[in-house]
Amino acid sequence: MRISYWHVLPRELARFWRITMPTDEKSINPESERPIFQIEDRLTQRNRTFGKPRIKIWIDLDNTPHVPFFIPIIRELERRGHKVVLTARDAFQVCELADKKRLLYRKIGHHYGKNPFMKVFGLLWRSAQLMPFCLRQRPAMAISHGARSQILLCKLLRIPTILIGDYEHSRSIPMALPKWMIAPDSLFEHKFPVKANRLRLFRGIKEDVYVPEFKPDPSLLEELCLRHDEMVITVRPPANEAHYYNPESDVLFIELMSRISRTPGVRAVLLPRHQLQEKALRSDYPEWFKNGKIVVPPRAVDGLDRIWYSDLVVSGGGTMNREAAALGVPVYSIFRGKSGAVDRRLEMEGRLTLIKDTEEIWTRIQFTRRDKSRRVNNRPRPAFDDIINYIEEIIRIERLRKNGQPEAAARAE
């Protein structure tokens, strides 16, 4: 039997390619000097075009707010061709929320309570626990929102670190200082644990990174047995295990809960930071939880949903206050630690009210219904683009240094 072969000419092959290949595969330039059959990842091709080296980035999720904050950043870095690997500390609702968001991560370490000696031990021990993961993955860059164990380990292994921070009074540990820092522009007058040329300031607040993606889920009301005609107040107790904790915050918190308990037609969604705090509150103040007036979610729920379906928010922390401000929900802070520049700016802009004493619990916090039917403001905000562009800039600078061009890297800084 005679077999016939198609002796294809170049122009016939080009015509066959145009007709048969799917549209999304036609992005290869036919005039390119590269061989037409060279197979290459399109993300790699795009990164080469824009001079952005593709690297492996390690992100450590150390606290609950880090999960929603990093999700858009992870997605964008991967879209640009970088490989992102995740670790998570088994503390508060970090892992539960990461599971809900379907993040792939390695759970390493846990929380060691508020004892300062155990905090130091926990930091050192978790760094040791992270080492096998780090040595196996060999990341070129590490990013966190204050994961000291990661920063300490990376400093020992000479891996560049980026700390994204928004509270200037966070306690820095000399042996766990980051190489780079990205912070809100409201902190421009403050000192940071990095050299001035390694600080980058973004516009807005970190919550602007993920709030524009928020889509309300009305099923939360049914899950928590809340009615549309009720006044709902979301309350976050103070972080009594944090180094910045001030007992005055608990005094304000107890006064607030007393007012809520005495006010008809008002219900509160109470969000303890961990099970021990919830257990202590139920034991010390059982009257709060009678008749279903105070609701504690049985599982970790989306923080933005909790805020959106509230008439107002009162919190002893920072992230929830700023999330409410980003969503345009009335918010009052009972945090009595050192006030941060971000919160002071929000107060100047009329987006946050700082409560200073028990009298203001009754005179300044307005128990007023708000219109929950309006649409969420999903417009993009500059914080996201600023942070992503700074990360890319830092990657390029570190690549210059790694490639033996320290002078070029120094100029780029």
Structure description:
This protein has 2 domains: 56-211 and 382-412, Rossmann fold (3-Layer(aba) Sandwich), CATH 3.40.50.2000; 217-363, Glycogen Phosphorylase B (Rossmann fold, 3-Layer(aba) Sandwich), CATH 3.40.50. The longest helix has 22 residues, at 116-137. The chain is built from 15 helices and 13 strands. The chain has 413 residues and is of the alpha/beta class. Helix 5 (116-137) crosses helix 6 and helix 14 (382-402) packs antiparallel against helix 15 (406-412). The strands form 2 sheets. A 7-stranded parallel beta sheet has the order 3-2-1-4-5-6-7, with helices on both faces. Helix 8 links the parallel strand 8 and strand 9 (266-270). The radius of gyration is 25 Å and the shape is globular.
- The share of residues in helices is 25-40%
Shape estimate? globular
- Major pleated sheet: 7 strands, parallel
Strand order in the sheet with the most strands:
3-2-1-4-5-6-7
* CATH homologous superfamily grouping of the largest domain: Glycogen Phosphorylase B
Span between N and C termini?
71 Å
Give the number of DSSP strands: 13
How large, in whole angstroms, is the Cα Rg? Answer: 25 Å
Main structural class: alpha/beta
Order of helices and strands: HHEHEHEHEHEEEHEHEHEHEHEHEHHH
Q: Count of DSSP helices?
A: 15
CATH class of the largest domain: Alpha Beta
Q: Would you tell me the overall average pLDDT?
A: 85
> What is the number of domains?
2
Strand fraction: 5-15%
